[in-house]
Design brief:
The protein has about 270 residues and is α/β, with parallel strands linked by helices. It has one domain: TIM Barrel, CATH 3.20.20.370. The protein has 8 helices and 12 strands. Strands 2, 5, 6, 7, 8, 9, 10 and 12 form an 8-stranded parallel β-sheet that branches. The model has no long low-confidence stretch (mean pLDDT about 95).
């Protein structure tokens, strides 16, 4: 089974807010990691090529990798995009719609703490230069714990808003926090999203679930040796993998806490 590293980034900054700092890499480290990908012999391909292969299309060539970015931090526009353009690397940016700033106004609202986020002009410009824009819900809620009406707005409403802004179909979705469930995955697929990424901290593969694509999260404290292992196809399992009992138990606990009005977060246990 071919191991495909799908790298997950958040912010790329020298001075991030404290809440996102653990999930932030500096611009210097980011460039070093992209150079490591190239030096390893991997070729970065668009996410849509992996999705097409998972839906029965042409298989990915050996040595493929994918770059993804979650949330929609403003540093993607100022820092990440120029580096990707310089290296000729494609990427997918998953945008939390409620955190995007409209022209001359305030964002409609998200659960993300304060940070410099993209505005709609920047999102449309990134789309115009070839960055794939995907959806990351309206508010970044834990979608496997919310009520049906809110879930529909998060999944369907975010797709509609992005398509109105960009003027074309948007098909790539990412689950906030990486959380999903069989029922949620069905809702995402029925809404017209053709792929959805989780976390998993596994390699994806030619047998992965297109509605639960596994990714490797790059953190601020990811050691260079670990990243090098990932580029060599080592150091992590390969998707698909059955959902662990711990993940099911954690979901049940989070749903109970959400029902009691005191939701909790934390990484997905996979």
């Amino acid at each position: 089974m071919m191991a495909v590293p799908v790298f997950l980034y958040h912010s790329v900054s020298d001075d991030p807010p404290s809440w996102i700092a653990p999930f932030t890499v500096t611009p210097r480290v980011f460039r070093e990691q992209l150079d490591r990908i190239t030096d390893s012999g991997l070729s970065v391909v668009p996410l849509r090529r992996l999705v097409s292969a998972l839906h029965g299309g042409p298989p990915l060539p050996p040595g493929s990798a994918v770059l993804t970015f979650d949330d929609g931090f403003a540093d993607f526009y100022w820092t990440v995009a120029p580096v990707l353009a310089d290296l000729g690397m494609p990427a997918t940016l998953y945008v939390t719609v409620g955190a995007v700033h409209p022209p001359g106004g305030q964002p409609t609202g998200s659960l993300l703490p304060p940070a410099r986020m993209l505005n709609w002009r920047q999102v449309t410009m990134l789309d115009a230069v070839g960055i794939e824009i995907g959806g990351h819900s309206q508010t970044h809620a834990q979608l496997d714990t919310v009520q049906a009406r809110q879930c529909a707005d998060e999944v369907v409403g975010s797709k509609r808003r992005l398509e109105e802004a960009l003027g074309h179909e948007v098909t790539a979705f990412a689950y906030p926090h990486g959380y999903s469930s069989p029922g949620l995955r069905t809702k995402v697929r029925q809404a017209g999203w053709t792929s959805a990424t989780a976390v998993g901290n596994r390699f994806s593969s030619n047998a992965d679930d297109p509605m639960r694509i596994s990714r490797l999260m790059v953190r601020g404290d990811t050691p260079p040796a670990v990243f090098e292992d990932w580029t060599a196809g080592r150091g992590a399992g390969v998707a698909p993998a059955p959902e662990r009992l711990a993940t099911k138990g954690w979901r049940t606990y989070r749903r109970l806490r959400a029902a009691l009005g005191s939701p909790v977060g934390g990484p997905e246990l996979l």
